Every structure is written in structure tokens, then in C-alpha cells.
Amino acid sequence: MTVDRADAHIHLFRRGYREGFTARPGVRVDEVACFESLAADHHVTAAFVVGYAAEDWCRENNRFLAEQLARHAWIHAVAFVAGSDQLTIERLESWRGQGFVGISLYLFDESDARLLQQRPDEIWEWLVANRWLISVNSRGRWWEAWLPVLERHGTLRVVISHLGLPPAVSRPPGDKAARQALAGPLLMAKFPGPRLKLSGFYVLTTPGHDYPHEAAWPYVECLREAFGVDRLLWGSDYSPCLDSLTYPQTFTIFDKMPFFSAGDRQRIAGGNLHGLLTEARRS
């Protein structure tokens, strides 16, 4: 049976990702065309593209993604938010007019966390009403910055990237250690809105190419118990992942995990994200 997959975490840059193989001297990679080829080979019919524009080499990533949204039906992008001054109703409406289905936040310090605390409730209400997705990269205690927001807006669709970025491990941690490492995402799981991406396994194990990343499986088991299978999403982290793995290894990893059924794997690899994207587009 052919499964229509949906990749919940990829990046697309006009000149390629600057810290991977696409940045090697003499290398020229069209990341959009490359992904289209991989998608055709592996029945990927939708991709959730995470905007990133925090460095000089990618400042115009939102503009580039808006151009691609107009050309490719499989692209479902979220706009990078550079600072609290950008998170306004006017800016959200502008991004919606360009075809975006959500926003991308990177929260790794106190000033980033303050972004959440300073935003008025009307921002979160708009995001809830429009069923927009909020892709978030963060780690450790910074996940807890979401708790006051979720207490008021529990259906907010915060999508946690890379299992919440717990520490990389070379051996499977015990249940207690795994739960401590995932404390923030596990607290967020009690609210109905948040989802979690099973992505970026190459940064969660040492070495990064240690497929099928069994050392990180205790993290997955904790998150499956807390979130339930219907709130888990597969993400490849294309194109950075290709420095450590083949593209198919980013989803065949779930075939190796004995705690997932065939039905679980289908929902994680595509069904869950397809549903979220359909709702975001309809709104």
C-alpha cells in the first residue's frame, strides 16, 4: 500500500543551506528541485517548510518562500518571525495573503522568551481562530515560557521541533533521565493544541549517523505516551539531514521502533500533518 507522506520539517533557501554540503566550494544545489525529486521517489505529497532568516545569508528567506508558495502546491510554509515587533495582526494578515499557514519561532534565550510574554492575547486568538501552525525551535527550560500562553489559549497549535531538542545521547537514557530531559515538552502535552515533530534524530544521538538512533528511542516512547500518536509528526529536517543520513532513513526509522504499529506509522508519516494543513488552508 502506497502511503502519501507529509514531511513536517524542511528548509528551503535560495542559495542552499550555508552549514551543510550545499555550502561546499563549487557546489550548486537547487534545494527546491532536489526535494521535488526526493518527494516523487518517496510519495511525499506535502512539505511543511520552516522559515529561517536570523542570519545575513538568509535574511530574505520569507520573500523566497512566498515566491515558492506561488509556484508549488506541495509547499506549506511558515514565516520566520525576527522579533516581537513583527508579531502583529497586520503582519499576520500580510503573511496569510502571501499563502503562509503559520509562523516560525526560534526561542533560545531570555529575550526570545520575552517575545511570548509581551504579545497581547489578540495575537494568540487570531492564530487559534485561523488554525495556524507555530513551528518552534527551542530547548530546555525555554519551553516553559509557553505555559502561561497555553493556560489562556490551550488549543494554540504550537508544533515542537526535533523532540524539543533534548541532549544528544550515545546510549539509551533511563525513563527518569529521559523525562527530565523532556520536561518542558511533557508539560506542554497536557494542552490539546501542541503537536510534536519526530525530527532531527541526527542531532539527538552521538554519532549523528547512528541510524536507526536507538539511543534516542526512550525519548520517543515518553513523548508517544504524553502526546498520543495522533499529535506526532514525521519531519526530515531537509536539507541539513543529508549530511548524516539518506532521505528515506528519516522516515524508515519508525519501521524499526517496535512500539509503533503500522497504523501509527502511517499517521506519523503523513496523515496527521495532512489533516492540520487542510484545516489551516480552509481557515
Give the SSE layout.
Elements: E1 5-10, H1 31-41, E2 44-50, H2 61-69, E3 75-80, H3 89-98, E4 102-107, H4 110-118, H5 121-129, E5 133-138, H6 147-152, E6 157-160, H7 175-181, H8 183-188, E7 195-198, H9 217-227, E8 232-234, H10 249-256, H11 262-282
Parallel strand pairs: 1-2, 2-3, 3-4, 4-5, 5-6, 6-7, 7-8
Oligomer: single chain
Q: Tell me the strand order in the biggest sheet.
A: 1-2-3-4-5-6-7-8
The fourth-level CATH homologous superfamily is Metal-dependent hydrolases
Name the shape in a single word: globular
Q: Which series of helices and strands comes N to C? A: EHEHEHEHHEHEHHEHEHH
User: Approximately how much helix is present in the residues?
Assistant: 25-40%
Q: What is the straight-line distance between the termini?
A: 31 Å
- What is the count of structural domains? 1
CATH architecture: Alpha-Beta Barrel
- Uncertain residue segments: none
Number of helices: 11
Largest sheet: 8 strands, parallel
Fill in the keyword field for this structure:
283 residues; alpha/beta; TIM Barrel; 8-stranded parallel β-sheet; 11 helices; 8 strands; globular
Give an overview in words.
The protein has 283 residues and is α/β, with parallel strands linked by helices. It has a single domain, classed as TIM Barrel, CATH 3.20.20. The protein has eleven helices and eight strands. Strand 1 (5-10), helix 1 (31-41) and strand 2 (44-50) form a beta-alpha-beta unit. The longest helix has 21 residues, at 262-282. The chain is globular.
